[in-house]
Amino acid sequence: MGMIKEFKEFAVKGNMIDMAVGIIIGGAFGTIVKSLVDDVIMPPIGLMLGGVDFSDIKLTLAEAANGKDAVTMNIGAFINNVISFLIVAIAVFLLVKSINELKRRFEEEKEEPVADPEPSLQEKLLMEIRDELKK
């Protein structure tokens, strides 16, 4: 029974919920980036290269025979995935950079030196007496 209680405590911690939300949003973001690469970026590039559809670029290692499919290296799909990765990496880099900049600014604001308060009249008089006694 103790293991179930530990799991419940772990699962409802704020960090675990934040991580779950991040994973869900990350998955959705990955889908959007994949569509951006496959449907928006690659078609014009393929058109500029003479109507090449990158997803169809394959290197055939063995032809189809005896009811078996051909063995191919799907180079075009790999290129699409590399571009998708680069877009996601740049987006994550910019996000982390922005967060770090905000943290740095927040910490600078917190670390501003606090000016010493003006001494009270009583303290000023005591300092004057002290200085006179030293003379």
Brief account:
70% of the residues lie in helices and 5% in strands. The chain has 135 residues and is mainly alpha-helical.
SSE inventory with pairings:
Elements lengths: L1 H10 L2 H35 L10 E4 L8 E3 L1 H36 L10 H14 L1
Could you describe the 3D structure shown?
The chain has a single domain (2-134), classed as Non-ribosomal Peptide Synthetase Peptidyl Carrier Protein, Chain A (Orthogonal Bundle), CATH 1.10.1200. It is built from four helices and two strands; from the N terminus they run H-H-E-E-H-H. The protein has helices spanning 2-11, 14-48, 75-110, 121-134; strands at 59-62, 71-73. It has a two-stranded antiparallel sheet with strand order 1-2. Helix 2 (14-48) crosses helix 3 (75-110).
Question: In total, how many beta strands?
Answer: 2
Strand content: 5-15%
Radius of gyration over all CA atoms, rounded: 32 Å
CATH superfamily: Large-conductance mechanosensitive channel, MscL, domain 1
What is the CATH architecture assignment? Answer: Orthogonal Bundle
Describe the biggest sheet? 2 strands, antiparallel
Number of domains: 1
Highest CATH level, the class:
Mainly Alpha
Distance between the termini: 78 Å
Q: Trace the largest sheet across and list its strands.
A: 1-2
Q: Structural class, judged by helices and strands?
A: mainly alpha
List keywords for this structure.
135 residues, mainly alpha, 4 helices, single chain
